[in-house]
Specification:
single chain, about 130 residues, mainly alpha, 5 helices, about 0% strand
Length: about 130
Amino acid sequence: MLAGTVIAALVSYLLMVAAFYWHRVRGFHIPVMVGCLLFDLGMPVYLVLNRDWQTRLIEHGDILSFGVWMHFGLIIALFVLYAVQVQTALQILRPKPGEEEVSRSAHRAQAKGILLVRALVIATGAVLAEPPQA
């Protein structure tokens, strides 16, 4: 059975995919994308506050595993993509003459990258998730 955090991440991912395809409905697109970004920023905080990382990473030696470092690297890549994505979103909302089409195509390309990297973050997180305690 999947952990609750993995299920929450999958639901937010499905919302993000819907917002990607309904990008012209700004009243839906912008709040969903901002909500997913905030969810992804808050998830590490939640996990640090509610999981026993000392035992898992240090005592069990998981800190040296490839999966943990791959997951961490993907999270960093996701946050970098989010930062660039927010910059291009602001350029779209406050266009300068002649830059709007370039900003839109860059924003769409970044969104595809975010969807791919976020799917990998969720997949690696699901693999690394501890099974629920009985």
